[in-house]
Design a protein that fits this description.
Helix content is 40%, strand content 20%. By secondary structure, the chain is of the alpha/beta class. It has two domains: 120 residues, no CATH class; 167 residues, 2-Layer Sandwich (Zincin-like). A hairpin with a 5-residue loop joins strand 8 and strand 9. Helix 4 packs across helix 5. The protein is flat, with a radius of gyration of 21 Å. The N terminus is likely disordered.
């Protein structure tokens, strides 16, 4: 697949609605989820970050393909990536993160070289399980349940709950809950509920921890992110994955404190880890290892 750099620059510099500036900041500042596996590959020349969204849209719209042994291959271009990252959110689908500038031929060469290792990685991946009428999600600040109803159409409904957000997904009794389309709609409803609840919860959570530990931050946003738990821009704006609502409280606080520490240290150097350890009063690397399996489970269910 070939990209036109002239067109990318035109979109990136015009300020059009098609390509808004990427605000992830330079130099990292993200709390990454643990991956099932990772391999090094070729590095390409990086585009400036204001081209990120345009390049990503073009790449993901036309680059996905089926591999005879590895399954469906989905491609994502990340302006900050410096190597190939391979992961199986579920067995049917291989997700590949690419550095900018890598061509299709280079990708296919790496897939051939790593095919045996990727097949082993695929065998370890979690198969997505279908959910039934008894499906429920219970967390300290969020709950979601599937409930049969007599109405003609499915709908998401807010339910009363003290100390958190509760949602019911009302599904007509006549629906076959095991149907693939119903399964997709249920997952979309759960994501919608998570977005709604996180938009209200995250600013309060970040502000409370920032005051407690003496940090200053910018805007707080809730996003559906599968490869990161959070990120912090160079301006102090913090984005958090909606899946934090499903974590134990101590792990959600770890992610928030991780991003707050990036408002002081925009890297993952020794001073950053020392600051995070003082902030948490615990070894952050132990919490990071404890966090990793949750990322794999959420990607397997939602990915």
């Amino acid at each position: 697949m070939r990209f036109s750099l002239e067109v990318l620059h035109l979109f990136g510099k015009s300020g059009s609605a098609f390509c808004r500036p990427w605000r992830g900041g330079r130099g990292g500042g993200a709390a990454e989820k643990g991956e099932n596996g990772e391999f090094s590959g070729l590095m390409g020349e990086g585009f400036s970050e204001d081209l990120y969204l345009c390049f990503r849209i073009m790449a993901t719209a036309f680059s996905d393909f089926d591999h005879p042994r590895l399954g469906r291959v989905r491609l994502f271009v990340d302006s900050r990536a410096r190597r190939f990252v391979f992961r199986y959110p579920r067995r049917e689908e291989l997700c590949v993160t690419l550095p900018p500038g890598v061509g299709r031929e280079a990708l296919l060469a790496v897939l051939r070289e790593r095919e045996d290792a990727l097949l082993r990685l695929r065998a370890q991946a979690v198969q997505r399980a279908a959910v039934g009428w008894d499906f429920r999600v219970e967390a300290s600040r969020f709950s979601f349940a599937l409930q049969p109803c007599d109405g003609p159409a499915a709908r998401l409904q807010r339910a009363g709950r003290d100390g958190g957000a509760a949602y019911l997904y009302l599904l007509p009794r006549s629906c076959a809950v095991e149907d693939e389309g119903v399964q997709r709609s249920l997952r979309r409803a759960l994501l919608s509920a998570l977005r709604h609840a996180a938009a209200a919860d995250f600013p309060r959570r970040v502000e409370a921890l920032a005051r407690r530990h003496g940090f200053r931050h910018g805007q707080v946003a809730a996003r559906v992110m599968y490869s990161r738990w959070g990120s912090c821009s160079c301006g102090g704006d913090i984005s958090l994955s909606v899946f934090l609502l499903l974590l134990p409280e101590r792990l959600a606080d770890y992610v928030v404190c991780h991003e707050l520490c990036h408002t002081v240290e925009m890297n993952h150097g020794p001073r950053f880890w020392q600051l995070l350890g003082r902030t948490l009063g615990a070894d952050p690397r132990l919490l990071r290892r404890e966090l990793a399996p949750y990322g794999r489970r959420f990607r397997a269910f939602f990915g």
